[in-house]
User: Fold this.
Amino acid sequence: MAMLGSVLLPSPMVLASEGIKKVTTTSSSPIRPLKNCKTVDQLKMFHRSLAKQGLENDVSSITKLVARSCELGTRESLSFARELFDSKGNGESYGSRFMYNSLIRGYASSGLCEEALSLFLRMMVDGISPDKYTFPFGLSACAKSRANRDGIQIHGLIVKMDYAKDMFVQNSLLHFYAECGELDLARKVFDEMPQRNVVSWTSMICGYARRDLAKDAVDLFFEMIRSEDVRPNSFTMVCVVSACAKLEDLETGEKVYAFIRDSGIEVNDLMVSALVDMYMKCSAIDTAKQLFEQYGARNLDLCNAMASNYVRKGLTKEALGVLNLMMESGVRPDRISMLSAISSCSQMRNILWGKSCHGFVLRNGFQNWDNICNALIDMYMKCNRQDTAFKIFDRMSNKTVVTWNSIVAGYVDNGEVEAAWETFKIMPEKNIVSWNTIIGALVQESMFEEAIEVFRSMQSQEGVNADGVTMMSIASACGHLGALDLAKWMYYYIEKNGIELDVRLGTTLVDMFSRCGDPDSAMSIFDSLTNRDVSAWTAAIRAMAMSGNAKRAIELFNEMIEQGLQPDGVVFVGALTACSHGGLVQQGKEIFNSMEKVHGVSPQDVHYGCMVDLLGRAGLLEEALQLIKSMPMEPNDVIWNSLLSACRGQGNVEMAAYAAERIQVLAPERTGSYVLLSNVYASAGRWNDVAKVRLSMKEKGLRKPPGTSLVEIRGKTHEFTSGDESHPEMPRIEAMLDEISHLGHVPDLGNVLMDVDDQEKRFMLSRHSEKLAMAFGLISSKKGTTIRIVKNLRVCSDCHSFAKLASKVYNREIVLRDNNRFHFISQGKCSCNDFW
DNA sequence: TTAGGGTTAG
Assistant:
């Protein structure tokens, strides 16, 4: 805290230097030679000395003075040059070609591109034709200001005036096309050059590196060093290093660094920054730190590279530490440094430090830079200071897509999805980040179908292409919906569009396919993944566990350990769940006992929950209860619920009542426990107790959540709610249900938790959501296709046997996912062996 | 004469 304080509350040294303008020397020093003049005052003095020598109208002298003035490249020196240029000497304009060239170059290199281009135009109007020097300056101005049309016109002029064979002109054209994103045209210029120098190669390599074509940049670099007619210099190497950073390719990066050292290319400040950035992006943080320490904290750009990478990795304290170090070494943070600082505060949701940063920004005049405004808006939104965020937003004259995205993301962060959506709708321009933000928000809010809907409308937008982030959200939505057709289409989409299948996206896809009841696809994706981390293994273990293949799940778990990965708490949940579903009591116990002893992972309540579940399902109720009592932490309602549901399976009414009592104390709002308890009583025929439980629910204003089932037909999901007959196809669904009933299905009336007559019970059972979905699936899909149903609650045993019968009679595979696991039902048999 | 890294939002 103390360390960070000095970043945010500037030290006395910084305060003293702030706000004090540089004092310019006005002492009467002797007249310097022109090449030594470094300030406008010195130039003006030189100009006065010309007058004393009677040379104030001498074209040659004035031309040299203008050239020097332009070389300095400050706003003041450029306007002084322009003043001289506009004045007349001996009744004649000073506008020689050389002067035009000097000024155009000066304007272009200081970023005053409009001035440069308007002077280019005036030059021609004045009847002075551009030459081989004018064209590169003009094109440089076009490249910088993305004046694409002007650049193309200049190209025409170059051809017309026969300058197209000049290497410098060709290099400038190449650079211009690369900068405005026309890489193919740039490459055409490059390929057709009869001779190339280091600038030609560097411009082409850099063009690729800057346009997400880093691979091409690296390839071209290796081609360059093979060609041997030209050697790379530090300009080239900075580009190549940055390309390796973008590729996150450490191996090539190290080769490139070795090349730099071997060939004695100067490692300047810019190169060190590029190298540090490369090592950070490749996650070689220690190497980056070594370089950083070697070259010191006095280098502003280096500090910025380090800080921004720390921020990207979420290492906010380290980022602020670098900024702190800079200040201590007397290096003043610039606006780039402040972007990292503000972003750190935003990530930490630290409004106090964020405000300090804002203060620093204001004191140093950075507040008019769009990027700083965007970062501040993001910070204030994330810190829940929307008013301040909007004040900055309203004052911005140049709101970009990033500005709008910050607002949308801020709303999402605050859980205001509605406001995010409204903002998203009205924003003038949307990019992939905007779409990903809103899609991610919908998925987060469990609005899966809406998320997919938005994704579909995104695809009709020109210039917006889904990326890995989009696909992760959509995969998650598909998984929750259990929509297999959609999931398959998505996988195809990823392949077709060349979206990189990295380990994160891969893991999401494994999860998606396993949730959609397609463990084979899940495993084939898992097999194809390189660099599998613990999350990837967890997804595969879960896939096997959910599909009832407990043995394979445990094999995978062991393979993971053999490969030397350190298991975390999450993967143990997967492994224990597998044991529980497969009834592997002994293996479950062994894994549970190994957690702390072998792997140093202390079991959390969730792991105890898995064990209670495992023991309970295996009928070891007493042992499960003892385990609960031995827990080092207070058992939560979920654990008691596991016990309760085991009691239901075993018909242990007393222990069920005890567990239910505990749950009602710990989580009185938990409806499931009441339902389970009344279930236990109903199975035992204790209708009075059932009635008591129902009354107690009613008194507390609790209602059993309605059962709902989804069924996917030709890529569209249909939702059914228990007892709801509003579906337009209801008459046909009813006919289907009747047909199955007449085929010999004997309703298991014990599933009806109400004391009504048997006919009524039969009717209620026939309107269970999974039955409605099943019947609809049978009548609306082609013969032989698999019917996939996702239910929000547990599948009832009557529906389970109903599904088994239907699978046999109609020769259909039925995949039923409930809130706990999958049932793969085929030819009258279920993968769960009627034990779930 | 021409060429260079890092820069906020998911």
Q: What stands out?
A: The first strand of chain A starts at residue 88 and ends at 89. Residues 678 and 690 of chain A are 5 Å apart (CA to CA). Residues 604-704 of chain A form a domain with the Serine Threonine Protein Phosphatase 5, Tetratricopeptide repeat fold (CATH 1.25.40). Residues 585-599 of chain A form the longest helix (15 residues).
